Task: structure prediction
Amino acid sequence: MMENLQTLKAVLPYAHGKTIGGEPAFVCPEVMDVLALCTKHEIAVLGVELFKARTDGYSTEGISVYDIPLRDQSWAEFVAQNNSLALEFVKNNQGGDDHFYLLTASLQAEYPSLQSQ
Result:
């Protein structure tokens, strides 16, 4: 999702590389620092995907399945809940040197438009 590049601007310097589609790819353990920075910058990580790099591309190794609705909590609470689950996913799904993570993320201003898709 190229739209995420602006959202993830604060953490782009920590990307290990990019996918064919231009999405920033993060490796472990740096992805844990990226999640902390997302929380600091109030970027909600709505999902995490783990991929394994292969000679012919990459394959999916894991996809997070959490879904926290934004209801009565503040945006900061929503971010904290989502990012805590993202961190838990990463800790439970640590890839090796040939693995990378993609983050689906949102700023508060972007979130309503994501909900309508």
Q: What stands out?
A: The mean pLDDT is 90. Strands lie at 17-18, 24-25, 44-54, 57-63, 99-106. The longest helix spans residues 75-92.
